[in-house]
Design goal:
The chain is an alpha/beta fold. It is 37% helix and 14% strand. The chain is built from 12 helices and 9 strands. Strands 6-5-4-3-2-1-7-8-9 form a 9-stranded mixed β-sheet, covered by helices on one side.
Length: 355
């Protein structure tokens, strides 16, 4: 199981699509429980993975180090905005299996949404850790109206410092007014996604598998390694732990009652299960998509049309990977690429797979 631990609700950025610090009425800014209580809960699992989350978790490096010292995990994972990466000590840095760094693609796009100068500071810090940190390093984008998915993903790949690129479409929970025309953007997004898929396969023809997470995750499902439902594992093999010790299915909506499964005193095996609801379960894409996102599936904030538009991006992604799958298998057959290298992710590393 994956345990996503909120180290704090405080953030040192205020991105346009996020808003920054989590209000204290949603959860306290600081952890209210003891590390002992956390350890007792996680000890119910023989093979836990721990992901540090916020707010910005590196604002609480001392607490993160204490947890890593006191609670043994198969994998440690970090989601960070990257501004404090340079403060990580080498002996802790080397213990992470995956670090996800928030960056939205090209400099102008990143700085528009995150603040002037953020792109350069993040890239500088990533370059500082790269000679030391050799494990999975994911550029994690938020895709919104200024995003050109082909250009922004290719830009991050071209830096040669990230092992993978992932993105999540800023849909449904987006602040009012941030989107001017989501319908038009989805058309452009789908067109550029096709272009990006073609580029991905062309690189495979040259013997190189680019770490584009949504492409690999969908291909893995099409190869028979079925994703969980939802594919991020929320409430299935992933739980979030708030600063006040509540156990959530999904980390992005700690304020919603249906999302709260228990607390640190709960029996792990008796936590209630949340299922993806219709219309997703009857959809022909469900075996691969898995319902895309638990929050999106249950909270129809953009109505039926918004739901349909977001679904259209998932369906297009799946159709495109289906289209190129025969070519990819041909490249495997002739030894151009390795089948094993296509199976990604190897463990739940907090990537949602379906953007």
């Amino acid at each position: 199981m994956l345990y996503i631990i909120f180290l704090t609700g405080v953030c040192n950025l205020k991105c346009k699509y996020c808003g920054g610090t989590i209000p204290s009425y949603v959860m306290p800014h600081e952890i209210q429980y003891s590390i002992r209580d956390l350890k007792d809960f996680i000890s119910q699992d023989e093979r836990p993975s721990i992901a540090f989350y916020g707010g910005e978790p590196l604002l609480r490096i001392d607490l993160m180090e204490r947890i890593m010292d006191e609670i043994e995990a198969e994998h440690y994972i970090l989601q960070t905005n990257g501004l404090l990466l340079h403060k990580l000590k080498e002996n802790y840095l080397s213990r992470f299996s995956t670090i996800l760094v928030s960056i939205d693609g090209r400099r102008d796009v990143t700085d528009f949404y995150k603040g002037k100068g953020v792109y350069d500071r993040v890239i500088e810090n990533v370059k500082k850790i790269r000679p030391i940190y050799r494990n999975e390093l994911i550029a994690r984008m938020v895709a919104t109206e200024r995003t050109e998915i082909y250009e922004d993903v290719r830009h991050l790949i071209s830096l040669n410092i990230f092992t993978h690129v992932h993105w999540q479409i800023d849909a449904v929970w987006s602040p009012e007014g941030l989107w001017k025309n989501f319908a038009s953007w989805t058309e452009r997004y789908n067109e550029n996604l096709t272009k990006l898929v073609n580029y991905w396969v062309k690189e495979m023809e040259n013997g190189k598998i680019l770490g584009i997470v949504p492409f690999l995750g969908v291909l893995k499902a099409l190869l028979g390694y079925k994703n969980t439902s939802p594919p991020c594992g929320s409430g299935v093999n992933s739980f979030a732990i708030t600063t006040d010790g509540r156990i959530l299915a999904c980390p992005i909506c700690p304020d919603l009652e249906w999302n709260v499964l228990g607390d640190l005193s709960s029996d792990l095996d008796r936590l209630p299960k949340l299922e993806i609801l219709e219309p997703c379960k009857s959809c022909e894409y469900f075996d691969v998509c898995g319902g895309r996102c638990l929050f999106f599936n249950r909270e129809r904030l953009w109505g039926d049309e918004g739901f349909r538009l977001v679904c259209s991006t998932a369906k297009h992604l799946i159709n495109e990977i289906k289209r190129v799958k025969p070519k990819i298998m041909e490249l495997v057959k002739y030894g151009r690429i390795s089948f094993e290298d296509l199976i990604y992710p190897k463990f739940n590393n907090t990537t949602e797979i379906i953007p």
